[in-house]
Amino acid sequence: MDLRFVPPDLRRLDEAGAELLACCIWSDQWPMRGLAGLLDWRLAGRLSALAREAFLLGELGEVLCLPGRPRLPFEKVLVLGLGPRAGFSEATFRDVVAHLLHVLEGLHVRRAVVELPGRAEGLMQAERAADLVLECVAESTAHDAWWLVEEPDAQKRIAQRAVDERRRPLIAEQSS
């Protein structure tokens, strides 16, 4: 799978060229922040309305699929629940990413813009989040590309981590 980056900016997200956009929400945070907050604005408050109606709760394991068009260039928008913010952990991150992979495979989506769980709030380091995503996706051939929603400084750190990881087997071979 090819990892690419896009900053959390609606105009730049529009240029990604993916089939689906996935964002995350907490069960105990209002108003919505991160990518969900941007989407809510672009969708004229639709996510907030669904939350007010208790149709969208943000509970761990919850997935809501909405049409993206005509307000967004994506066919589908997925909103993933993370549960309460205080309960977030690396295990939560793995569970949500695994669930996302399963949903994307079921929808036959190969190219997606993804906001990684906890990243908008800085609850997980960018490099660690990228490592965990690659571990989760390692054996899957069902995904072509993900655009990770990251700020420019995090994009650089993740890219450098990828370069370092590619060098590691070469360094091990040279030292043998």
Written account of the structure:
The protein is α/β, with parallel strands linked by helices and about 180 residues long. The protein has a single domain (about 1-175), classed as 3-Layer(aba) Sandwich (Leucine Aminopeptidase, subunit E, domain 1). About 45% of the residues lie in helices and about 20% in strands. The chain has six helices and six strands. The protein has a six-stranded mixed sheet with strand order 1-6-5-2-4-3, covered by helices on one side. β5 (about 110-115), α5 and β6 form a beta-alpha-beta unit. α4 crosses α5. The longest helix has 24 residues, at about 150-175. Residues about 170-175 have low confidence and may be disordered.
What is the fold's blueprint, element by element?
Elements: E1 2-6, H1 10-14, E2 20-25, H2 34-42, H3 46-52, E3 63-67, E4 76-81, H4 90-107, E5 111-114, H5 126-137, E6 145-149, H6 152-175
Parallel strand pairs: 1-6, 2-4, 2-5, 5-6
Antiparallel strand pairs: 3-4
Helix pairs in contact: 4-5
Rounded Rg:
16 Å
End-to-end separation in angstroms reads: 30 Å
**How much is the average pLDDT?**
89
Question: Number of DSSP strands?
Answer: 6
Sheet of most strands: 6 strands, mixed
